[in-house]
Protein 1
Amino acid sequence: MYRPVALLLRRSRWPATRATQFCATHPVRRWYSDDGAQPVELAPGAAQSTTAATLESNPNGPSRKFTPKKIQNNLSLSNLKAQIAEDQAWKTQTDFDSIDEWNKENARLAFKGAIKEAGVHYAQVRLPCTKKTQETCRDMSVYYHQLRDACTCPLCVDPKTKQRNFRLSDIPERIMPRRMRWLDDSHIDEEKILEIQWATDVPGYDSSHVTRFSADEIGYPASYFFKKETQNRKQTLWNKSDMDEAQHWVTYNDYMENEDKFHETLNALSQYGLIFIKDIPDSRQMAEQLATRLGPLRNSFYGQTWDVRNDPKAKNVAYTNQNLGFHMDLLYMTDPPGYQLLHCLKNSCNGGESLFVDAYSAARDLDPSSWSVLSHSELPYHYNHEDHYYRTTRPVIEVAQQANIRRNKSIKHINYSPPFQGPFEVDQEQGKKWARDASRLINALKKFTKNIEEPSRIFELKLNPGECVIFENRRVLHARRAFDTTSGERWLAGAYVDGSDVNSKLFTTKRKAGVFNESQREADDSAL
């Protein structure tokens, strides 16, 4: 039996009638309606086919005329309902002698899965019990366009390249199943299979083409877990005392070779945005090896990897021995790197301690007015040198486009890098308003800076040779104390990795470990 790969959904493309479900802590957009709410049905093609007769042609008043398309749709729907009834041999309560027998039949249908109702655009299905639901049946409305779009059979998706062989625009506007049923004798990992044969299909596909999904591929597609582990991931806000206890250290060998330890390290990095590696061999090449364990190196005009050490001709304050205040890297670029690595090769001089602050925690503790100003006002960032010029603008608090959730849960990124802040461009017609807004912005920035620099928030340590820190660039602010080059040498090797690559590694590592095969009932029930 052919097993389709995990169903991928496309967000915000499908009917959204009461379609928001929540996992344990964050909202998850689904493509079905759990409560079976019925969407309002309009006559297919009504805008084109409905006409009002004139008084001269119809003295009794306007009338409606059915087009062949509507008649065809009605016939297709009638045929589909008849086929579903025949496949399931549905019975009503009146067909049973007792309520107990009727309840047993309902329980049987719940275990098997059932098509409860079919419409022109959707069908309401009862998903059978699976390992993930732990014998908890679920009623959902599924939509024909998405079912067809998500088909991963060998005709639709090349098994080797995983590339689609059709376009979304190829799907008929009025697509509808010819037959839709749960297969009793077909399983994927002991799950029932929903099979759809199409009455109308993509040009070039004949009646032999079928689309098949397991129950969990419908209820829990791969995209559900990816969003849960990335956009809606568990994040623990921390201060100095928290990180003193929770700091995660892993040896170089475990990080590179032990999948279980690497899995734990990724979880800690996702949760706290900061982890440490020790016992690293003494080699300049280690920065690249450590970074590529997470994903491809992110290149920049600094190079794929770079050195942080005192340079008399430095074009960046980081390459001096001066104090370096809290900041984030490369915010002047359109897409700043998601993660940064700093591998310590030498650190024998006095000073040079590394400092870290959870910017999410500092932002959470702002008053509502300052939060509003910093999430709506954009600061300019630029890099202005002879051979390079970059510029962009960003709000200090970049919020996710989600409503009705707590402030600290809506943070997407923090953007804060005073060393590379650029000059404002002021619209002369809006100059007075800008001046008033600038005053509020400066006041809000002062409060945010005060939060950042509170000693109780700052986690500080001096990296030793053979140690590396990895941190989330747009969550964890980093800084460095000045150091004395006459007393020794300080040399760190650095690298960047994009956030999307780390998210991919986090997801695939968990999937290979079987994390997503566990029951999802507890997570879903806690959100109801």
Protein 2
Amino acid sequence: MSESPAALQSLEALQAELAGVWSGALLGASADTESDVRLMGDAGLVRVTEALARVQRRVQVLQARCAAELAARSRTGDETDVAKQHGFASAERLIVEATGGRYTDAARLVSIGEATAHRATFTGEVLPARHPHLAAAFEAGSVSIEVADVIRRFLDHVAPRADREDLREAETLLVERAPSIGVEGTQRLIRQLEAYLDPDGVKPREDELRSARSLKIWQDAAGMINLRGAFDPATGAPIKLAIETLVGAELHAARDARHGFGAGDGDAGEAGASATGGSPAAGMSGSDATAGAAASDATAGATAPDPLFAEDRSIAQMNADALADIARLSLSSPEAPPALRSATVIARVDADALASGRGHATIDGVDQPVSIQTARELAMSAGISPLFMADGCEKVQLGRSLRLFNSAQRAVLIARDGGCAWPGCPRPPSHTQAHHIDWWTRDRGPTDLDNGIMLCAHHHHRVHGDGWKILIREGRSWFVPPPHLDPDQRPRPGNTAPDHLAREHLAVRRRARNAGRHASAPALVGSATA
């Protein structure tokens, strides 16, 4: 049997290695691909995946060599052009047909093949590859073709403006680091290297990125408001930081909840129980008393995570909520630009629809109608003005000026709740709105402190959408879940401002001590007289 071509011997060695790894990974007899994979142990499956990647990288080397040669033979400009002989406009088109892949992949094979192949002078002298360190790493299979192309494009781009020795050092560094940091890590390293190799190009590149910044906002057929943007570093940095900070805080809070942090509210529950004779619900009547009596149970498991308050949003949803919170804060901030301070979101709703709860509302500038429930949420949000319309009439009531909690009331509510009162929510006061517990229209609830609570937009929506009931007893909030979430409807203690919690705790203890002293006073007097 004749010996295999030298170019294929390394591939055959890798195939033999793959066969051994595959066989060693099987925990039973081999049948077919799908069955074999299912029979592999965890460690064996990982080893097989790594072996397949080595084979793939070797095949890519052979493909790149063939692609570069096909490209060279397809640029003759005469009848010997290989691509045209086979009916294709270029070598890349021929490769696309052969591989069934994309044109960009074919072009990459050609570029990498040419950049890592030996060169020949007009006299026939053989010269090293244009990027020799990259060529060696690619041939050895230590870098994939994707990483090799990223490095190749960078080196070709910066070569005219960089010192030759510095460029070689950069190539060496990239080739050494690329196997461990992958494509994205290599791109990050390249951006820093480019600044060192071409310091005069930093400002022009920055200007180019800045001129390409954009943000498009449109509404699709489903009624969703879509945003697609690209920002230069200086413009995008505050956007990125603000969103990541808000989302990071919520992720930390969710992690802490899983580990049972934040048990301090349990003390408040016990304090409330002491002050009311054993239950934070003392003094309630009917179903409120039943719900409040169950509240003491909430303190018993304060250190255990409550599944009802588990974070169920994806990162993408949390990013969207964070951006919405930033926009709401900007609309109500006195530090916002003058044009933004005068901007108001207007929700229009028919008065009969608002009263009956049947119908819909519209938001100025947004095509998609919204529900009455959403209109009520907007009506209670800072910086939002609902505009109530009667049939064929002019504006009859501007809800923002008549029904929103004023700044003094908000200050008192913030002093009590500390921010969003929803259990475990870390949102600060600046990201909350004062919400009517008994709704303004549906329940004719007053804009009084006893009927107010601070909620962030996300949890405001949950209260409305899920049917939670909120109780205020002994100066703190209790959240009663709807039956479909908790058949027992066990109240959960809401967030309380730390200073309010400490103050109330001390007040309860002092009242208990004073009551004890007054109760024992006659006995003490009698003892002294005797």
Protein 3
Amino acid sequence: MTLSLGWLSALVAGVFSAHVLQKLCFPYFWRDLVFLLKVMRYGVKLELFKLTSSVHTVLDRFIQQAQRIPNKPFVIFEGSVHTYRDIEQRSNRLANVFLERVNLRKGDCIALLMSNEPDFLCVWFGLAKLGCSVAFLNTQIKSKSLLHCFKCCGARTLIVGSDLVKGLDGILSSLLEDNIQVWAMKSQSEHTQVHTLLDKVDAASDQPVPAVLRATTSVKTPNLYIFTSGTTGLPKAAVITHFQSLKAAAGFWAFGATEDDVMYIPLPLYHSAASLIGIGGTIELGATCILKKKFSASQFWSDCRKHDVTVFQYIGELCRYLCNQPTTEEDKVHKVRMGVGNGLRQDVWQEFHSRFGNIKMCEVYGSTEGNLCFMNHIGRIGTVGRSNFFYRLLFKYDLIKYDMLKDEPVKDPNGFCQRVEKGETGLLLSKVSALSPFFGYAGSRQLTEKKLMRNVFVKADTFFNTGDLMAEDQEGFICFRDRVGDTFRWKGENVATTEVAETLGQVDFIQEVNVYGVEIQGHEGRAGMAAMIVRPGLTFDGNKLFEHVMRDLPAYARPLFIRLQEVMEMTSTFKQQKFQLVQSGFNPSTISDLLYVLDYQQQNYIPLTDRIYQSILARELKL
């Protein structure tokens, strides 16, 4: 009896010691394990699709939900409730119109230029029911970029929202010359060559088109094209397969959302966050979403209270705008329990918690076209994701040393990249494999190759270059540090410096231009700045430059600051030197070059004075 008691006491002591050791040395072990097992369970389902050639797509899931919960609100938009049955039947009507009147066929690519509204979903689903792939066009892009988007994804048909038809005036003739048919979500059209859809939808059948049209046997089949600035040049069409759509649709579920949640989606549907994670995630759960045409900081919390919102999508700027709103007694009066998004700065995160309550903020890291995703399921402030031993077994990624001055990876004597130590900042690379494929961009193999690095650690290995500098601490939390190369982020959009530079280069007085992003205190991302050399014999014309950027560049890509130089600095490999320019910023008291700032009121680029500089830092001047 004494021996048994001694053995039992030793067992209890051992278990207790192991528990204490786990809490001290591996405090996140069980939470990591449970989260990873959940993700792996979903991953196994996707792998079974590959083996059985029987793919249950996001659209199939929507149709299933429409049969299971037909009367449940799916989308609430500007006070109108649209049930799962409503969206299903209207998308059927559109599918029948596309099939019978527009003569679309399985495999066609259709460009969609629409603002956030329920018909965006109905058109998207209607096209998908025919087996068509859909290219989501950014509603802010201008003529040259818009025409380029058609060419790279091979779309021959454009469907445009009623509120965006006038924006086509400058390029409609070019579209028609390229034999691209244009259909507007209107009942009548001022343009004789722009066809109308709404009048035909009303007369169409709401019966489903044959299911065989949407059927696919491979998760690798492209179903969407989502445009990204990537790292260089004009927008690139990232290929989105059913595999990527299905993975993104599991995001809300992975973070613990359920069908009882109400999602708030204020982000543009042409981006993957709102469409793939937001709408796809709502469908996967059978939940309800509140869709906003455009984010409004003043309406956000009243909307959340009115609709009992529990989960919202964000980008870092959105949360900062909310923190900048006047405080009220109702700041913590809401049912929101979770936010899902990316780009949330640590200081804004802390202020957001203090102001609006202990809402779990779930950061997601991953580019539209990338093959790697980090998810901060722990909710650690200031981190974009979490890694551990189990995660590294499944997803192969590395942080390598990067020389910011030379703008290139640091190589060893054998020509291979070098890994950084824990806690050090490095360029994030993700290994391309069967488990983590990279589907690239439509239209050009060369564009896809530019995002790949080969012979990184050994001969013949291949990695996806994220272009992001990250750091991983001793506990496995991952922090975003900066972007490298020719891209920066402003107003929630990626800005390709090459595209902006090419546009500015068309101005007659500009001889050479170098575009980059500079940090502004209190603002997420980087604001556009252009260092330029004026052609001999000509002078800088701020008014002419203003007119040019207003006409040819979207708002987020317009350079806010101009720096006139006599000589353009170059790297040792004859690239334009950006690092020193980025570091020196836009302070007129420390920069001897002439500086100008974009002024919308005067419709001009005006001299950047110390007074204007201070008003920008004090947030008195709206950017």
